[in-house]
Amino acid sequence: MPPRSTRPADNLDDDDYPAYTMGRAADMLGTTPAFLRALGDHRLITPLRSEGGHRRYSRYQLRIAARARELVDQGTPIEAACRIVILEDQLDEARRINEHLRAQGTEPQPKTSP
C-alpha cells in the first residue's frame, strides 16, 4: 500500500481512506450498523479501527457493502450475497489484469491438460 499523504485534503480522493464511522456508513447505505457488522463477520469487508477501537469504512468498502445490500434486498441470504460480491470483485480484477496484458501485447495463454 502506498504511504499516506501528510496533507489531510489529499485523503479526500483516496477510495481506501477510512473516512466514515459505522453510523455514518449505515446512514449512507440506508441500513443498520448490525448489517455492516454482519458483512464483517462474513469477511466481505474488514473496517479499519480508530485509536478508540471504532470501526471506520472507506468509500470502496461502502460500494462493496451497497452491492451486498442490493442482493440481500432481492432476497439473497447474506452469506450468499457476500460470496457473490467476492466473486464479482475477483472477476473484475481478472478482467483488469487481462485488459492490461492485452494492452501490453501479451495475451494470457489457456491452460492445457497434460
Automatic annotation (TrEMBL):
Residues 19-87 form the HTH merR-type domain. SUPFAM superfamilies: Putative DNA-binding domain (SSF46955). InterPro entries: DNA-bd_dom_put_sf (IPR009061), MerR-type_HTH_dom (IPR000551). It holds the Pfam family MerR_1. It comes from the Bacteria. This is MerR family transcriptional regulator. It comes from Streptomyces luteosporeus. The lineage of its organism: Bacteria, Bacillati, Actinomycetota, Actinomycetes, Kitasatosporales.
